[in-house]
Write a sequence for this structure.
């Protein structure tokens, strides 16, 4: 059988990039927010058939170095935010202590 030459794939203009989002939140809130961000990036519900809008991945890092934790608390601590229960409700987090 004669060998067939594969035509070269068109050049992929994409390149790996990172969008970093740092939050001051509970671990449950960060995990729920990860799903919200994933759905926004993907363009569909997280468990869907078919392709995503673009290739992506997310990660929640709960083991930040002390200097980074201190910096982020100083940076984000003064920011006015919703009450914790309102944040949980908006992210679909059920308060296990109330039921």
């Amino acid at each position: 059988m004669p060998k067939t030459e594969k035509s070269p794939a068109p050049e992929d203009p994409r390149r790996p990039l990172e969008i970093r989002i740092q939050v001051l939140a509970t671990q449950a809130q960060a995990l729920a927010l990860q799903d919200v961000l994933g759905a926004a990036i993907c363009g569909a519900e997280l468990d869907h058939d078919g392709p995503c809008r673009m290739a992506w991945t997310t990660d929640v890092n709960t083991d930040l170095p002390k200097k980074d934790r201190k910096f982020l608390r100083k940076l984000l601590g003064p920011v006015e935010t919703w009450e914790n229960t309102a944040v949980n409700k908006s992210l679909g987090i059920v308060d296990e202590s109330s039921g």
Q: What stands out?
A: The mean pLDDT is 86. Residues 23 and 44 are 24 Å apart (CA to CA). The helical segments are 27-42, 66-76, 84-90. The radius of gyration is 20 Å.
